[in-house]
Amino acid sequence: MEYLYKAMTRQGAILEGKDSAESPDILVGRLKARGLTVLQIDAFSSQDEVITSSVRAFPLVELCRFTRDLSVLMRSGLPIERALKLLSETVSNAAMGAFITDVRQQVKQGKPLSQALAPYEKSLGRFYLSLIKAGEASGRMVEVLSTLADYLEQLRLLRSNVISAMIYPAILLAFAIISIWVMLGFVVPQFDTLFSDMGDALPLPTRVLMFVGDFFSHYALHMLVGSVLLAVFVWKGLKTDKGQTSLQAFLMRLPLVGSLLITLEVARFTRTLGTLLAKGVPMVKALEIALDTLSLVTMKQAFAQLIPAVKSGRVMSDTLKDFKRFVTPTLIQMIRVGEETGRLDAILLDLSALYEAEVAVKIKRLLTLLEPALILTLGVAIAFMVVAILLGILSVNDFIF
Prior knowledge:
Layout (H helix, E strand, L loop, with lengths): L1 E7 L5 E7 L3 H10 L3 E7 L5 H4 L7 H16 L4 H11 L3 H15 L4 H5 L3 H4 L1 H13 L2 H47 L4 H4 L8 H35 L2 H13 L3 H22 L4 H10 L4 H7 L2 H6 L4 H5 L8 H13 L2 H57 L1
Antiparallel strand pairs: 1-2, 1-3
Keywords: Cell inner membrane, Cell membrane, Membrane, Transmembrane, Transmembrane helix
Family: Belongs to the GSP F family.
Membrane topology: Multi-pass membrane protein
């Protein structure tokens, strides 16, 4: 039977995981033998998958560093247990340190690395564990660890490029919101007394601005609270399957954004599948794992048809013809060449590099349009306020004289 456990290491770090045992007492004894103090044990069932999500994924940069360092130490001739001991003593992240210590204890008891890592599948992912098992089966663990580190590094760089590219537009958007907030909340109300007696004599732009400013000054707190509540409601809604699907459908309809999302997904899918095939993972299992890396629901549902097609003896390139919304004719042709020459893994890795480069180009193109649009919107909004105020002042002069 499987159990979820929470335990504390000698260093005081809290460790959570999943393991199988004949009874809770046997699992307690096993955890104590690994130097852990058991805090909680609960029976695990298929309905408890949500609970295991509390065992959060390790930071990608930490996991990449751990994998790379383990590969280097083992390549230098150190046994895996000694390499893990050295890493546990030098790692700075407490959660990663507790993880390495626990894995080392299990390896020290004679378990293979894949079995020692199995309780952390939620944190590491099926891809990671499958490659480790492939490395053990082929006797090429050092090479597999190096490949894993390269894969994680590429994934980290791809994610970092996307996040970095969005920082400047986010700053511009925040600056625009704050600027308009200050103008409506503090600057416009200063002219209320000056314009209050003129009524319909004011120009239309000035009347519109004063109405918006008056509404804003009276209901600013309500708007702030409402915005926060709306943001929380939307955030929670996006965590549901229906919310995710709706958001993705909206984003896919946006010019440039939809194409960028598909390119990102194809880059990730081809790199994952190519890496798995290169290390000897069977095609069907490799497809199942690669599908787990996809985020777009419609694309995942479409690509899921690859599995029964491959099982029935159909080649992947023939099945991909049905999904021209997500793949280009060039990609299909290159995959067909890989299938015919027996170099599908290498072709997929080459394709992933091409698509990752295309992601960078599309991000740059999107920002080239987005940044001027934000600046123009802010400029127009502030210009309207300034012109409306100036027209109002000129109207006051005309009214007096």
